[in-house]
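Reply to dn_fold:

You asked what the input looked like. This is it:
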Amino acid sequence: MIKILFICHGNICRSPMAEFVFKDMIEKRGLKAEFEVASAATSTEEVWDGRGNPVYPPARQELTRRGIGRSAYTNFSSKRARVLVKNDYDYYDYLIGMDGANIRNIERMTGHGRSEGKIFKMLEFAGINRDVSDPWYTGDFVSTYEDVLAGCEGLLDYLGK
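and this is what came back:
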């Protein structure tokens, strides 16, 4: 089983979008049993008293508009933000950050560097050398979805599925 953790700053927009886009892709290809997929944050901003906030409403709307969330496997209604922990590095095969700041924080929080082959920036898989656009600041959830989709498709190709 391949274990993938998508990571962004707050775990309410980009990384949960990636989690559920990727789940939708593998479900449609009959590959669910080959993967464990989750998402996390590098910040505690969206976690209060041990309980994380849900996926941000505009992110939920964009996923729904794209037909994601209809199956039990891709239903994001119970998804709550959670913070990356050091042990995630040992548990997951791939830790995929959405931007350069996420990558630096993943390295700091896990004590491991990119050279070890588990930490990647999302759009690398699509052959694009830039960050996934952050809709928290841009308000553009369509562009973020397109970035996430490109990264997820590239990741699936990279994994040879």
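The first strand starts at residue 2 and ends at 8.
Hope that clears it up.
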